[in-house]
Fold this protein.
Amino acid sequence: MEFFFLGSFFVPPLIYTGIINERNKNMKENDFITITNIKEYIEIGMIKIGEVLHLKKEPDNAYDMESIMVENKNEIPIGHVANSVSSVAKGTHSAGYIYQSFNDSILCTVKFIYHDMIIAQLQSSQEETKDMQNEVNPKSWTTT
């Protein structure tokens, strides 16, 4: 039997999968992330509060298998979602925490800029938004 390491405990795969799925269900728009390695872009004023940034998974990253690259609206890479204890700001999520909550990419909005880091708020994925619109769209309801 295979076990996964979660915190200080070994967890059977079925339970581990349930934990991950539950966490993904709870991923909401009010979740914040830390974006690092962006000092030069902040200094030249390339990033502003309120700007929408694009987060893209980097599955081929040799240094971090949960790496998430951050691009601006012109698709220029400007940094990464923080993924270490020393770089994740208190109260925000790491790249590893949000990695399984979206397919390939998701959007976020810059909320705070502090020295060499950005605190950004996740937006609903486009697929989630379409699903939510279908749920509240009366045209999609069927009557019997």
Observations:
- The first helix runs from residue 13 to 25.
- The first strand starts at residue 4 and ends at 6.
